[in-house]
Amino acid sequence: MYDAMEQVGVLLATEGATVITGGFGGSGMEAPAKGAQRMGGKTVGYTLIGLPANPYFSEVVDCAKNGDSPEIQFGTRLGHLLSANGFIVGAAGGAGTLVELMAIINLNAKFWKEKKKVVILKPGSLQCSGWDESMLQQLKSWGVLPDSVEVKVVDTPRAAVAAVL
């Protein structure tokens, strides 16, 4: 997944897109920033609770600067990520990624007039339990993912970037 998301960063930077992530390590945050930086692209990372950003950002926004509680910092960070112009390419992740996905679905369904494109990258060779069409079908069955919100699952970095640009 890390290599695939690094390639997403390369492709986005090649197209002139700014890569904005949560600022820390892993396939969803560090990898695309690393790929974009390698191509000379602009990268922005949002951090919180005083933790340092990964080294692949041209700009870091520290959401802890006001000394707010971790809960407020998380909300501020999420707000910054969601208010960025453009689109979302998500990597299979954990609880934090799921919170972000649910916020995106809710905002796309109820508030954003111009819907943001949302893609989940799940390379075919990876076993990312739940981060696939079956997850989306489950969310639809619960009434959480309305038909008016499109979330695509793709299996290559090139398909992810093509779906959002």
| Rg from alpha-carbon coordinates | 15 Å
Number of structural units classed as domains:
1
Q: Note the overall shape.
A: globular
Number of strands: 6
Sheet with the most strands, sense and barrel status: 3 strands, parallel
Top-tier CATH class: Alpha Beta
The helix fraction, in percent, is 40-55%
Mean pLDDT: 89
> In sequence order, what are the helices and strands, one letter per element?
HEHEEHEHEHEH
Regions with little confidence, pLDDT below 50 for 5+ residues: none
Classify the secondary structure makeup into a structural class: alpha/beta
**CATH structural architecture:** 3-Layer(aba) Sandwich
What percentage of amino acids are in beta strands? Answer: 15-25%
Taking the alpha carbons of the first and last residues, their distance comes to 21 Å
| Strand arrangement, major sheet | 1-2-3
Continuous helix count: 6
CATH topology: Rossmann fold
Characterize the structure shown.
This protein has 165 residues and is α/β, with parallel strands linked by helices. It has a single domain (2-164), classed as Rossmann fold, CATH 3.40.50.450. Helices cover 42% and strands 16% of the residues. The protein is built from 6 helices and 6 strands, in the order H-E-H-E-E-H-E-H-E-H-E-H. It has helices at 2-14, 30-38, 70-83, 95-110, 133-141, 157-164; strands at residues 19-21, 43-47, 59-62, 87-91, 117-121, 151-154. The chain has a 3-stranded parallel sheet with strand order 1-2-3, with helices on both faces. Helix 4 links the parallel strand 4 (87-91) and strand 5. The longest helix has 16 residues, at 95-110. It is globular.
